[in-house]
Amino acid sequence: MDLSIEGKRALVTGGSGGIGVETIRLLQEAGVEVLATDVDQDALEPVAEEFGIRGVAADLSSSKGVTSFIEQVGTGFDIWVHAAGVTGAKGDPLEMSEEDWDHAFAIDFLSGVRLARHLCPPMIERGWGRVVFVTSENVAQPYPEETVYNAAKSALLSFSKSVAMAHSGKGLLVNCVAPAFIETPMTDGMMDKRAKEEGTSKEEAIESFLAEERPYLVLKRRGRAEEVAPVIALLCSARASFVTGANWRVDGGAVGSINV
Q1: Active-site amino acid positions
Q2: 234-252: pLDDT as tens digits
Q3: Which CATH number fits domain 9-250: 3.30.420.40, 3.40.50.2000, 3.40.50.720, 3.40.50.2300?
């Protein structure tokens, strides 16, 4: 399918992660000029080399870090995919510390808010823009041991809906994509930790996690980044010109409720 976005410029945050890399691949194939960012320049280098793009490391967890990043790269982007995020601290919701909450909200929520202040107004002025925030299944089906992540990603979803309602009539379309248990470095870390705690292999840890923690994930496996990226790419395209304010699940059935 021709996405009709050739010649557009895109920013992909979380650009060294699995979903970020696959999104870059599809956008570049569609003729988009892509700039990638992530917190670690060393992790960005292989991505920049593979795709022949610019990779700029940035700490988006603070206002100062976002401002510094924008000073380096400018605001001339037509497309922005915000895939930066962390799982945050896990445990009893009532035992999460102030630092746990601050960490999750700074990276998973406020990074998006702060970048939006810089990137969205120019899109509105030009009358064309696409923003896709990567949320999570957790916004629809929260898990008690992941409460800081639940709340931060839910806040991001609410923010995206508000921006879409306020500005979509001006050409800025804002949507979210909600993956579930995707094969990425983030979930690799989760499963490595689970395997160590249970004294099992990583494969066994994944199997027990699916059975015990994700009973509705009917495909019975982790998703792949290349299964999420096409949905993101579609929402970045001219083809999705009547879609805004939505949260598209790519979850293998992990959310038990009907999406209405």
Answers
A1: 149
A2: 999 999 999 999 999 999 9
A3: 3.40.50.720
